[in-house]
Amino acid sequence: MRIARLAGAATVCLLFAAGCAFPGSKVGELSVKGRLSTEDGEPLPGRTVEFLLPAEYGLGPMDLALGGPEAFGHEDVAITVTTDANGEFNQIVRPSVYHINFWVLPPLGARPENPPSPMLALRVPSYPGEFYIVWTGYDDYVAYDANGEELPEGDAALRSLATRTEPYMGEELAGTATTVELVYPAP
Questions:
Q1: Has this prediction a pTM greater than 0.70?
Q2: Which of 12, 45, 57, 78 has the greatest number of C-beta atoms within 10 Å?
Q3: Which of 105, 110, 136, 125 is closest to 31 using CA atoms?
């Protein structure tokens, strides 16, 4: 009898501790917001910032092996924003379908609940001759010149770039807000 109770307790513990992974897809919102400023903290108003969200965003390795972004109706998304008087911008990109392995973790439910952090290409036309590839989930970037050659650290006009990615709940969809802080030398 005691062995049966221990076996039953062990089974309940395993059910609540174990999780399962399932492939799936979900629709989520992605927003990009941020600020352009000088090294002294002064805002850079009226500046255009161009982002490119690659077509591969939201696709997993299996999706890419089965035909690439076009097979799923994905295409590159260009986003152009202009900074306001405070050097800030905010833009909802669009609802995106993303494919991911969902982990079902009783009693927590399915995870993740929000779209993944994006990788973005970024350019500020008022600083010509360079663009940046930004890994927002890792707060990291690489600067390139107009020919696609990586710029050595310190050679870019951009002095610093910081990112932060946070989940949020929109009016209809859960989403991921990516904040990008860009610092340039004073004009």
A1: yes
A2: 57
A3: 136
